[in-house]
Amino acid sequence: QIEQCFIYQVFGGKLRSQIHCTACNYKSNKYDPILDLNLEIFRTRSLERALNMFTSKEVLDGSNKYNCPKCKNMVKAVKQMLLCEAPNILAIQLKRFAFGKYGMKIENMVTFPARLDMSKYICGGKKQGPIMYSLYGILVHSGHSIHSGHYYCFVKCPSGAWVCCDDGYVHQVSEKKVLEQKAYMLFYSKESSAGSGAARMEIQTLGSSLAVKEGKKSIHSSSNGGGRVASLRADDFSAGGHHRPGSSSSSSLSPPGSPRSPPGSPGSPRALART
Questions:
Q1: What b/e sequence results for 59-86 when a residue is b if at least 16 CB atoms lie within 10 Å of its CB, and e otherwise?
Q2: Choosing a second label site near 12 at 20 to 30 A (CA), which of 34, 49, 82, 194?
Q3: Contact 124, 211 (CB under 8 A)
Q4: What is the pTM of this model?
Q5: pLDDT tens for residues 241-260?
Q6: Taking the domains of the chain in order of start, what are their residue ranges?
Q7: Are 166 and 152 in contact (CB under 8 A)?
Q8: DSSP 71-102
Q9: Among 250, 249, 170, 237, CA closest to 210
């Protein structure tokens, strides 16, 4: 079962789609497992607005009436989607790619917070109080076309420092710099959750084993005017551990810019754990 696999334990949640008949108050609930949320951003400029749109109530009426199994009639109804099981690691995809006759990339600047309260987007969440998530990683697509471009990411280390990971080029950045990005995917860790803590530790272990085998590795730091070389231990790397094996010396760090798989292609990343 999907609920028992490691990926689901890290990213998995459940989405409830509810249809409420306004004639007899019958409620139909459908539950689906999810690994991420896909949010439309074409007409929005903030993550909160995109979440509000995703969970807003939709009236089914006119030619789109609901065939109520209790009323046995085509009736007016209200449909709404909410999370009913909050994931330990919340992965959010901002749908920056529209596929029409030619296809286009949506370049909107969508603001997102360092801490996110998901209580109003979860079934019964308002009664529980704040359900807080902390940002720990984002994925960015560089380029103006849906057919080409380059992916890189920003990752928060356990120490609290943020680093930009662009192939073998890794450098420290400020949180302000991270929040200014036109993100493609966002990764939030649930606060005060043993499950999320264990999940993050598993991801960090996997990432670090891919990135650094032992000891200290040097990375470029952009703090204090740039050009300074800072040292991070292997366990300082958070999810993804994008420092490439064999690229520990400063001479092996190459600048960004090489082309990569286009968004939506079989090779495009879906989560930091896969990069």
A1: ebeeeeebebeeeeeebebbbebbbbeb
A2: 49
A3: no
A4: 0.72
A5: 334 333 333 333 333 344 44
A6: 2-274
A7: yes
A8: TTEEE-EEEEEEEEE--SEEEEEEE-EE-SSS
A9: 237
